[in-house]
Amino acid sequence: MSSFAVRFLAPPCCPSSRSKTLLCATPTVAPAAPDAVEASRLEPRVEERDGYWVLKEEYRGGISPQEKVKLEKDPMKLFMEGGIEDLANMSLEEIESSKHTKDDIDVRLKWLGLFHRRKHHYGRFMMRLKLPNGVTTSAQTRYLASVIRKYGKDGCADVTTRQNWQIRGVVLPDVPEILKGLAEVGLTSLQSGMDNVRNPVGNPLAGIDPDEIVDTRPYNNLLSQFITSNSRGNPAMSNLPRKWNVCVVGSHDLFEHPHINDLAYMPANNKDGRFGFNLLVGGFFSAKRCAEAIPLDAWVSADDVIPVCKAVLETYRDLGFRGNRQKTRMMWLIDELGIEVFRSEVEKRMAGKQLERAQEDLVKKKWERRDYLGVHPQKQEGISYVGIHIPVGRVEADEMDELARLADEYGTGELRLTVEQNIIIPNVENSKLEALLKEPLLKERFSPEPSILMKTLVACTGNQFCGQAIIETKARALKVTEEVERQVAVSRPVRMHWTGCPNTCGQVQVADIGFMGCMARDENGKATEGVDIFLGGRIGSDSHLAELYNKGVPCKDLVPIVVDILLKHFGAVQRNREEEED
């Protein structure tokens, strides 16, 4: 066992299958192996210097501006060598007077999870946390509420599509104190942005799900601890060519969306009956290309979750391209090397271990994806969890305090965030359910039983706060959905996702109907906010990325078009017709 291996017990035997509707996934074809990969191409392009990993001189031609910023000063020094204290004591005028400090606030601070909102909220930052598996506590929630409350209308929080919190309105002088406060409640924002590993995603019902395959929480906690070196900073894993996503699958429902992650652990037993994981690699979204993860044809034991993550990251760090940022995600490296060469490079970094070939997957292919909103029994007798709908993920300070109170009063002081931007209150005694469901917050704001189109609605930040977003998303997503619901009724969930720009933080490619922000032309030829519409994305065992359906639709014209899509493709009926039939 390598020094990074961790001993795990096998999970209990899988429960019997629930239901039937999902079909077996069509296998994704791995990229063909190139004729040959020259040995020189497999030479690492980075090296360690004084505790940080830097690009070697011979590979610095044609690199991106972001790589040049990293070469000028490793961003981790802002955290590990106290640079953030000095920066926080400078005025914005002083910072703007120097390219070096300007790059600090616009680029390097992203390694601390801080994103300067230069375009729309100059001098204010969004702070992204690390929340492995989406699990948080009432104390953590109250602390975050206290941070955003002081920023008034500029302060709010969002549940993200990676089971995470982002808080808004932060100003630079407050950052050192905020970082200390995060540490005191067991949180960190470290290594959550730019060329780092993003929040590890897992089953939001981990440990409470009667049908779970394995509890994903310990694995994701270990992944996060390894990646950030227990929140002290891990420079060995912080100079990647681009961002990198990881998930551990623990449910037949694939709540974790493995096919859009750079590394996904799929539960599987080997031929000896030992529990472990098959590996998928390379899934990603970007403005120019989207790709589903492909099998690495490798199985690792549960003990080697961390060693293989380290090996995959080192392969990507050492060999990945660092030029055009649209071609630096890990799948581009896999394409270049071929899957077998990539696999051999991972194995080479496994401290002498050989990777077994993929084994029989434990995820059931024919499985009806469950709805976690509402009241559901846990595996623990007499206990239930309550999934509540957070409209497009937006939460204010007072609401966060109320969520914390509900978690304490009715549960065990715990909340779970989901990739659909909702929240689960676990561990509620059945005798307390009636009182919980009568709470004003659940009756008036965060319903456990939202309308069928609202319950799966997802929206990115949009141009209210994000400088890259072309259109406003959150308020518009709610308004369009409300208007559509007045005209048609659907009998099953239709997942609608909004994203403000082609970076697709709103993950429109996995939606039934996706809306990607763009500039369009109205009937008079004038420029106006619009969307490209995507159709047919699927999640689960038969995952499939959506395809472009209609391009450049003005937002003001969307409602009748969405109504038409629902009628033609999703079995919707007109409201007046439904009422006549009733």
UniProtKB/TrEMBL annotation:
One of its GO terms (biological process) is nitrate assimilation. It holds the Pfam family NIR_SIR. Its EC number is 1.7.7.1. It catalyses: 6 oxidized [2Fe-2S]-[ferredoxin] + NH4(+) + 2 H2O = nitrite + 6 reduced [2Fe-2S]-[ferredoxin] + 8 H(+). It is an enzyme of class 1 (oxidoreductase). It comes from the Eukaryota. The keyword Protease does not apply. Keywords: 4Fe-4S, Heme, Iron, Iron-sulfur, Metal-binding, Nitrate assimilation, Oxidoreductase. Pathway: Nitrogen metabolism; nitrate reduction (assimilation). The keyword Ligase does not apply. Residues 194-351, 456-570 form the Nitrite/sulphite reductase 4Fe-4S domain. Its cofactor is siroheme; [4Fe-4S] cluster. InterPro entries: NIR_SIR_4Fe-4S, NiRdtase/SiRdtase_haem-b_fer, Nit/Sulf_reduc_fer-like_dom_sf, NO2/SO3_Rdtase_4Fe4S_dom, NO2/SO3_Rdtase_4Fe4S_sf, NO2/SO3_Rdtase_FeS/sirohaem_BS. One of its GO terms (molecular function) is metal ion binding. PROSITE patterns: NIR_SIR. Belongs to the nitrite and sulfite reductase 4Fe-4S domain family. This is Ferredoxin--nitrite reductase, chloroplastic. It comes from Vigna radiata var. radiata. The gene is LOC106769212.
